[in-house]
Amino acid sequence: DIPKEQWAQVIEKTGGPVEYKKIPVQQPGPDEVLVNIKYSGVCHTDLHAVNGDWPLPTKLPLVGGHEGAGVVVAKGNLVEDIQIGDHAGVKWINGTCLQCDFCQQSDEPLCPKALLSGYTVDGSFQQYCIAKAAHVARIPKDVPLDAVSPVLCAGITVYKGLKESGARPGQTVAIVGAGGGLGSLAQQYAKAMGLQIIAIDTGDEKKKMCEELGSRAFVDFAKSQNVVKDVQAATEDGLGPHAVILVAVAEKPFQQAAEYVRPRGTVICIGLPAGAKLSAPVFESVIKMVCIRGSYVGNRKDTAEALEFFRRGVIKSPFKVIGLSELQKVYDMMHQGQIAGRYVVDTSK
Ligand code: 8ID
Ligand code: ZN
């Protein structure tokens, strides 16, 4: 039975705080499903949304969240390929037009009409969440819903970013922000793809976690006298990593990566620190033939592939479960940079 009311965390105004309260359960439209969210990962994007960090406005009031894993409990009459009782994931891309140039070429995140979960439409920090059936992630039934939830944004995004980097098995990738949610999953995907990892972040807890996740070296950006030199020194021949995956929420690393990346190397920008600018020295970028590119979540196929890695058991990333009612605490810890790995909220608490 679907209740009329449910618990949710609602942002009434930009800047927050989030308010834990009861709101009505919505009905899915003809091409939509209603997912009973069991667990939802908390992404730094959710905090950017609370704080109004980006040049794109959110809806208000807003229910955040876009790593929602749960069970389909209702569907519109046009929905045929997903059934009530199936496990599904509400991800950042809630829906797209499926018609434009980008959708036709499976670059759905670039669709100008994309609906964004927990940003332009209500997301997964509620017990019942709506998403377009075409876009909900199909989660196999043998996969635990708490552990899989971070894959729905963090996992898909870093998997896509690693593919976009072109790094090949045996090569070295630097992961900047390795101790956070995206960074911890990036290490697991990189390892599964046969890459060697240099983790960059700060603090002993994150260092230990990165070593356990499979990184070969750890550079503490707060302790290092010269991050560029230390990252290069951590590669076997001292020439720098073949690829850099930038998932830090700070501007500085976006201005260092082109300096330490290997000649012919690729810098993948994923993190979205407020108001930050990319910069790189023209001379070195040219004579090293450096490639710098952005990478934005992933398409439906990337989603299925990222989930399949997880289902096979090769992606094991640390997460802590906390009640949905305690979301503000997670934001406070995230703001302080205190979270190693990911927090996942349990919507029943
Ligand atoms: O599709 C996309 N491009 C996409 C998808 C999902 C998330 C982008 N994001 C963005 C988020 O909006 C956010 O800006 O990726 C960023 C990282 O999200 P997250 O992994 O959820 O954030 P986190 O768990 O807080 O981890 C950030 C880590 O960066 C470290 C912190 O210590 C933390 O562990 N960090 C910082 I702040 N400065 C650093 C520095 N100078 C740094 N690590 C290395 N060097
Ligand atoms: Zn996210």
List the helices and strands and how they pair.
Elements: E1 5-11, E2 18-24, E3 32-41, H1 44-51, E4 62-63, E5 68-75, E6 87-90, E7 93-95, H2 101-104, E8 115-116, E9 128-132, E10 137-138, H3 145-148, H4 154-165, E11 172-176, H5 181-192, E12 196-201, H6 204-213, E13 217-220, H7 227-233, E14 243-246, H8 252-260, E15 266-269, H9 282-287, E16 291-294, H10 300-311, E17 319-323, H11 327-335, E18 342-346
Parallel strand pairs: 11-12, 11-14, 12-13, 14-15, 15-16, 17-18
Antiparallel strand pairs: 1-2, 1-4, 3-5, 3-9, 3-18, 5-6, 6-10, 7-8
The protein binds nicotinamide-8-iodo-adenine-dinucleotide (8ID) and zinc ion.
Keywords: Metal-binding, NAD, Oxidoreductase, Zinc
Family: Belongs to the zinc-containing alcohol dehydrogenase family.
Pfam families: ADH_N, ADH_zinc_N
What does this 3D model show about the protein?
With 349 residues, the protein is of the alpha/beta class. It has two domains: 5-153 and 298-346, Quinone Oxidoreductase, Chain A, domain 1 (Alpha-Beta Complex), CATH 3.90.180.10; 155-294, 3-Layer(aba) Sandwich (Rossmann fold). The protein contains eleven helices and 18 strands. The strands form four sheets. Strands 3, 5, 6, 9, 10, 17 and 18 form a seven-stranded mixed beta sheet that branches. Strands 13-12-11-14-15-16 form a six-stranded parallel beta sheet, with helices on both faces. The relative contact order is 0.16. The mean pLDDT is 97. The site of zinc ion (ZN) has 5 residues, from loops.
